[in-house]
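FAQ: What does a multi-protein file look like?

Like this. Sequence, then tokens, then the next protein.
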Amino acid sequence: MKKIFITAIFAIGSLSAFAQEEVTVIETTEATEATEVVATQDDFSEVSSEELPEAVTAAVSKNYPTASIDKAYTNEANQFKLEVSLEDGTAGTLYADENGNWIEM
């Protein structure tokens, strides 16, 4: 009976160990412009698709021709996190360096 109780405690504890990604929004206002910075727990900040290097967009087009980039993020190491969706409705997250090489995270 004691083993069952301990096993149940570990099972419940392991489920709570997978916390959701925390998103913090910081707004900075200057005299003429307002800037919104989105910082996530994994240190990626959102950027527009136009700010992506040509090598990254070319890698997406080459390896996933039916994909569209929905959101893009970057970190201090010039790595990019891309949320993409395919024409068939599937979606996923890709990671690439600034040279368009895929990274496994």
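And here is the next protein:
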Amino acid sequence: MRVHHSYLVNLNEIERYVRGEGGYLIMSDNSSVNVSLSRKDALLGLIS
């Protein structure tokens, strides 16, 4: 899923979502990926 203009992520590799204005994801390799405000609701709908 595209979560930001610069990031395309595999939903199976998401460890957790950290809330914030747009928030960010912690991935299985401990990297962090920003989530854009415009894609936040769609992402939360898929991972909840």
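Q: Is there any per-entry metadata?
A: Some entries carry free-text notes. For the entry above: DSSP finds one helix and five strands in the chain.
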